[in-house]
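Worked example 3 (structure in, sequence out).
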């Protein structure tokens, strides 16, 4: 690619123009509430309701050929969801999902560029090298020639500071801006006034794209001085192959936004480089906006294709018995989707994750029987089976973005994923379970799980995969993580991987149902204690 030749003083000026300061942030301290504790009543009667034969019956349906591997968006997944919903209906659980059903519909989409072209002053630049555009966050605009271009500072439109002059009609014009928020000469942020924490404009370009849309701006070009690092760290979102939850067209709220390299910025700014630098320094010195009219000719061509699928989470609601505490919620989750069918091969997904799904259904039944006997949990328990896990934890991500029950009233999530097999490390000793995440956000949850195991199940609790430096990083790879990243304490039960993982040979004949039942009892016992104690478990760890 042809390079632009500049003199040494101009090069130094350019380096000064495109250097960016990091934006330090500090966590906001939270008040620590006072907690009371009350040990839950003995759960033995209800734990004994979890039976290997029941688990086997559920799994026989979930892994049958007629469900064709339960791939999200396919008929087999919908059949599996209907089967789970029927179990909840037969238990007498109320439908609390969409339209008085047991389902929360999830809408997933992937968007890819059919055409993504950018030329400036006749020079062509390369997508994912000189610039990048998020397909899921940028509208289809087709071929657009742009001649009215302005340097507009930081693209902020706030009552305390706005880069949009009231004297200028911005409609139809393109702008070149910096990311972040400007600082004054004393290093304080222009809007927040703090030297440490910036305003909401400091971290998040979408707010600027939304402001530009409201002003009628035709396109936003954000200078990214670390463009190669950004492309590498956001490659899945930029490729468009990653499916994401969506209830509306998010891109309709945003002006078309292109992140550009220093090279492209120099081409757009051209001979106005000194004026742009002066404008930036004026912003810092006065805290007032300053714009520069640029003379570039830009052609932007953005045309994309969209693939959409629909899945569903299945919700089993066991209302708590305590008038006050029933407004808090303990979740027990597992994903019921799998990889579906490839040619003539069915990926049955017995361990992954018909095992977890069957276990959660059986726990729901045991808790329902306790409730019918007048001994149900004090807090409400939600037994939720999610789809979209195999496509990127999308069902649980969707739920935490659009929750049916308030996230701030969600006490914990107990997640069960692959609990039907024995891995090589425990060959000949099936009475174990890998415990992941219980101590990450709540030491209370960790202790509850250990005490519940000591009292009821006596499994070997293996914390190998809970280590933060474990290369597998399973903590981030199942549905509990979407709760954890929202500050909800989690514990994840897992039996480890095996040679049949994600293969058609992950079949029901290899499942140890006695082992599954024991892990199910531990999961329920932990949920039982969390749901029945007087005080809500503490969140005394940090989100990751």
């Amino acid at each position: 690619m042809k390079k632009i030749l500049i003199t040494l003083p101009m090069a130094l000026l350019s380096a000064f123009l495109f250097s960016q300061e990091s934006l330090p942030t500090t966590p906001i301290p939270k008040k620590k509430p006072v907690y009371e504790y009350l040990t839950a009543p003995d759960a033995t009667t209800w734990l004994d309701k979890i039976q290997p034969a029941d688990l086997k019956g559920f799994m026989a349906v979930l892994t049958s050929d007629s469900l064709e591997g339960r791939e999200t968006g396919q008929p087999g997944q919908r059949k599996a969801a209907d089967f789970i919903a029927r179990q909840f209906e037969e238990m007498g659980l109320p439908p609390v999902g969409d339209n008085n059903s047991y389902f929360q519909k999830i809408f997933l989409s992937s968007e890819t560029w059919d055409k993504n072209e950018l030329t400036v002053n006749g020079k062509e630049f390369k997508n994912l090298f000189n610039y990048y555009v998020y397909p899921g966050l940028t509208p289809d605009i087709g071929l657009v020639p742009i001649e009215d271009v302005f340097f507009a500072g930081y693209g902020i439109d706030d009552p305390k500071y706005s880069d949009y002059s009231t004297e200028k009609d911005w409609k139809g014009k393109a702008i070149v801006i910096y990311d972040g928020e400007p600082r004054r000469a004393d290093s304080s942020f222009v809007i927040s006034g703090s030297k440490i924490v910036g305003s909401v404009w400091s971290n998040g370009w979408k707010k600027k794209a939304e402001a530009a849309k409201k002003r009628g701006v035709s396109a936003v070009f954000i200078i990214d001085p670390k463009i190669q690092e950004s492309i590498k760290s956001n490659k899945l979102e930029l490729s468009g192959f990653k499916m994401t939850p969506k209830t509306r067209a998010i891109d309709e709220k945003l002006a078309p936004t292109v992140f550009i390299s220093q090279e492209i910025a120099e081409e757009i700014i051209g001979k106005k480089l000194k004026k742009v630098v002066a404008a930036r320094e004026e912003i810092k010195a006065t805290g007032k906006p300053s714009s520069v009219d640029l003379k570039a000719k830009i052609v932007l061509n953005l045309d994309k294709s969209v693939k959409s699928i629909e899945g569903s989470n299945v919700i089993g609601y066991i209302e708590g018995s305590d008038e006050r505490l029933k407004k808090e919620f303990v979740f027990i989750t597992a994903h019921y989707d799998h990889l579906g069918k490839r040619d003539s091969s069915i990926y049955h997904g017995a361990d992954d994750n018909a095992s977890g799904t069957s276990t959660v259904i059986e726990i729901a039944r045991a808790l329902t029987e306790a409730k019918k006997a007048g001994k149900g949990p004090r807090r409400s328990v939600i037994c939720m089976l999610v789809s979209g896990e195999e496509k990127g934890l999308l069902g649980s991500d969707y739920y935490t973005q659009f929750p049916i029950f308030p996230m701030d009233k969600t006490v914990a999530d107990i997640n069960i994923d692959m609990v039907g097999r024995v891995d090589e490390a425990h060959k000949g000793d099936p009475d174990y379970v890998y415990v992941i995440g219980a101590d990450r956000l709540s030491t209370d949850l960790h202790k509850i799980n250990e005490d519940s195991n000591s009292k009821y199940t006596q499994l070997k609790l293996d914390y190998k995969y809970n280590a933060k430096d474990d290369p597998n990083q399973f903590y981030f790879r199942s549905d509990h993580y979407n709760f954890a990243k929202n500050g909800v304490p989690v514990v994840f039960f897992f039996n480890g991987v095996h040679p049949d993982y994600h293969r058609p040979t992950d079949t029901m004949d290899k499942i140890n149902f006695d082992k599954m039942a024991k892990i199910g009892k531990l999961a329920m016992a932990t949920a039982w204690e969390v749901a029945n104690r007087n005080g809500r478990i503490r969140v005394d760890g940090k989100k990751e």
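Notes: The first strand starts at residue 103 and ends at 120. Confidence is low (pLDDT under 50) at residues 1-8, 21-37.
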